[in-house]
Design brief:
Length: 494
Amino acid sequence: MNNVPKVKVGIVAVSRDCFPESLSVNRRKALVEAYKKRYEEDDIYECPICIVESEIHMLEALEDIKKAGCNALCVYLGNFGPEISETLLAKHFEGPKMFAAAAEESQEDLIQGRGDAYCGMLNASYNLRLRNIKAYIPEYPVGDADDVADMINEFIPVARAVIGLSDLKIISFGPRPMNFLACNAPIKQLYNLGVEIEENSELDLFESFNKHEGDERISQVVSDMERELGEGNKKPEILNRLAQYELTLLDWIEAHKGCKKYVAIAGKCWPAFQTQFGFVPCYVNSRLTGRGIPVSCEVDIYGALSEFIGACISEDAVTLLDINNSVPKDMYNEAIEGKYDYKHTDVFMGFHCGNTNSSKLSKCEMKNQMIMARSLPEEVTNGTLEGDIAPGNITFYRLQSTSDNILRAYVAEGEVLPVATRSFGSIGVFAIKEMGRFYRYVLIEKNYPHHGAVAFGHYGKSLYDLFKLLGVEYNEIDYNRTESQRYDSENPFA
């Protein structure tokens, strides 16, 4: 994934001057040793200069972790800790930060060896709020070296997404197609998140595409497409133009990312795209997404934002799908009931024309876009990547601004079932517990659009923590509730 940041966490231990400094020193060393045994050694940096007891120490530590290239911070309370200095460190550090505290080691050492960091975390959290600092605090932020090592490892994907968003530009082409107002939302919240947006005409893109005709790199890209498609290369005649389009997008990114490091694209794919370009862009979109450059369909700007978040969290390809159609009862009865622990209302089909990366499909074929081909010549609708989505765990999620500029999100974990869809496009049979109620009382009730981002794995905890850290109010982050948990607007008599 060449479009997501690498995280390096600076671990800075703090100490209150009326406690033995050695408590924080030894506990920091034990934490670093535990992390390096369990996870990637390059993920962390141990700040050795000092134990932060004062504002002078804080400035020294801040300078040290900056010089070490740290873009995330873990403030580690080896004992009670100095609430002012430690929170000033968090205030002046520009990247994502977390706080964690050391547990006591043994009942045999509760006099000189008692650190009281459990208490210190309360003061730290109070001071963080006083200074309006958003910090990641684990579910239970007190533990021994192994526990805190696990906490830092859980923080890293959240930090990766925060860093990525702060340096992200979303490039869009064209207004949303007619009758797709559902994908429209105010862009003010993008700026609030630190995201830059560049909106272009699809005519600008078409001009750039035409300038790439005869590009000497096209043959190399075509060869790579042929390798990827293998026996699924059913439309070889269109690969040259698709390669030309891929190079157009990649060159546009390099020329337009400006001061930002990372890019996502909200692209136009119809109604005039296919008649003018002579193909549909789905396959190219899937290839870029596989490299960590998400490309959303139908100029869905918040869809592209959500996909980029998933790429940062998972460090893997993601996709954007329509929450599309119900599973027929005869398919449920034959292929799901009694074999998997899901009700009929728990299952649905997620679909898009052909934008899912080949690595996430059971098998794939290059085809034409069937819906468009119903009203257009087939030869201008080629370019989709069709296939059933591979079975496995997934997380459906979305971060969205409402029409009145409120930031809102949902997260639901589930799976793609190994059930043949007997349909077309990039499509799968999805199963999420209590999906029927979630669909009614979250997706419909709260006016979410039909597009949902999909990460391939269970990442609900990281996404939920991220959304809180980004400032989404906790009552605006929804999830699929269990049968015993009612939604606020759910009819109690239903």
